[in-house]
Amino acid sequence: MLWPMIAIALGFVGIAVLGVLAVRVFVEVRRLARQVGATSERIQRAAEDLERAATPLASRMHEVGRD
């Protein structure tokens, strides 16, 4: 009777450890997703800034090409 109880206890402990690890993974994935979202927004803003900065330069180059 002792061995089955030990096996059940070890099984329960193993499942508990897997549950704790699953929660930690879930928390880290959520944190990573927030960081990816913030970085994506920063890249989008930088691309918009670059486009705004390049527009006057492109129009000047176009004018120089006509001369």
Word description of this protein:
It comes from Streptomyces inhibens. The chain crosses the membrane at residues 6-27. Keywords: Membrane, Transmembrane, Transmembrane helix. This is DUF948 domain-containing protein. The mean pLDDT is 91. The protein is rod-shaped, with a radius of gyration of 29 Å. It has a domain at 22-67. It starts with a helix and ends with a helix. 97% of the residues lie in helices and 0% in strands. The chain is mainly alpha-helical.
Would you summarize the structure shown here?
The chain is mostly helical and 67 residues long. Helix content is 97%, strand content 0%.
Give the arrangement of secondary structure elements.
Layout: H1 2-66
Properties at a glance:
0% strand; rod-shaped; 67 residues; transmembrane helix; single chain; membrane; DUF948 domain-containing protein; mainly alpha
